Amino acid sequence: MGDVGLRRRAEEWLAQDPDPETAAELGAILAAGDEAVLAERFGSRLEFGTAGLRGELGAGPNRMNRVTVMRAAAGLAARLGHGGVVIGYDARYGSERFALDTAAVVTGAGLRAWLLPRPLPTPVLAFAVRRLGASAGVMVTASHNPPRDNGYKVYWGDGAQIVPPLDAEISAAIDAVGRVDGLPLGEDWTVLGDEIVEAYLQALSGLPLGDARDVRAVYTPLHGVGRDVLLRAFEGAGFPAPEVVAEQAEPDPDFPTVAFPNPEEPGAMDLALEAAARSGADLVIANDPDADRCAVAVPDAGGWRLLTGDEVGGLLAEHVLRRTSGADRMVVTTIVSSSLAASIARAHGARFAETLTGFKWIMKAGGPGDRIVFGYEEALGYSVGGIVRDKDGVGAALTVAALAAEAAREGRTLVDLLDDQARRYGLHATAQLSVRVTDLALIPAAVARLRADPPAELAGRAVERFEDLAEGVDGLPPTEGLRLRLAARDGGGPARIVVRPSGTEPKLKCYLEIVRPVGEGDDVAAARAEAGADLGALRDALSAVLALPAG
């Protein structure tokens, strides 16, 4: 490739860049002769996959920018050939501009385009695809990534995210796109009105909410776009308006009050928890910035307890199955989520499926005779009732509020319901080891080391089975990752570990589960503490084996 080749590619990029800001940035890099920066920007490109595109803003093919987005839109339009595309966007830097560029390219290619009226939650876009009978949808969002990132998520006509081979087909079409300054651009797209939001809110009225409504909630949108839609949803369903955390109420692409705008990250919900403690609230709810995820905290033992995605998933699964009927009902979760959902489905006479990680796979589960009534993944993503064929943080928040109100009417709490499930199905305790790195090459190297030399035991538990997910297991497509099945120890149940690279962030993620039997008269809190200690020991042992420096 060489330095001359890098400069030539950068100059060709600069000649077609319609954005004065990134053009000036790239011009300064060229003038400075910064070969290292040129190599980082032009030595590779953002890969289009089942998560679409996601990366840092800036000039060059390895960044999110108007050229990258216009090429992606042109490739999508070429793969479609006809039909229409719904386009949504969040409040991040560049999102509205990227959405407008997509609309111009799509209509210039002879397709129809609908643009959502303003920054709105991702589930509204996913809902709109099916509502409008579109061939595809695009959501411009980087979800919970850092402030300097943006992304481009693609949905197909079924309202679910794309899966192979569509990603490869669209990627090939993108590769065939020439200079973007030669693309025909249209102007006749349709800007939708508030009726699409009203239709989404009306659809949420079909959720299994019951009739209990007495719940006091504190809510944070984490500087994202969820607030207005969630408040309207609560009002429409008859719930008291949640108290919104003032410091995080307005959309702000800098996300000034959090290190990462992800409710899973330590500290992200601190302001909400402080507000709840002051007001004596019953419940804390948080959305991530594009409101497709939902985090939950509840009072417990004099403080506040953040529920895990698996705990919320188990509670919602049982709630939905208690309020629905039919042998065709299906509950779906992923290979990295708790195995509890399988037991719950079986107890309620429902079908169960386990998929690869990601809602793109969850919503493709089952066959013509299956009706997905609930799907979830441990990363705080839930789809209730099939209204949205993707994560829906607003619908999940409504259903959690209904469940909490119903429990309160009976003098109980969500923690009591979790204890009930532990006694009924065994305590399924889960935890994560997540290592963020600055050098992406460290992640595949760590997986390769573990694959080549798997441990015989971890924290005193024998590794009974080692499964390479890249070879395909349990009838699932191959995926990069490893699964370890560990023996029981000290009268407790077995354990499981799944190790996989993150699909959206520079992280290696490890998912741990221990299942402990709990008798009717046993102290669940004590069992949970013992399981937590076991998980901590497993996490430490696994961390030592991986030997990855934190980024």
From TrEMBL:
Residues 46-176, 211-300, 308-425 form the Alpha-D-phosphohexomutase alpha/beta/alpha domain. Transmembrane segments: none annotated. Keywords: Isomerase, Magnesium, Metal-binding, Phosphoprotein. It is an enzyme of class 5 (isomerase). Its EC number is 5.4.2.-. Its cofactor is Mg(2+). This is Phospho-sugar mutase. It comes from Actinomadura rugatobispora.
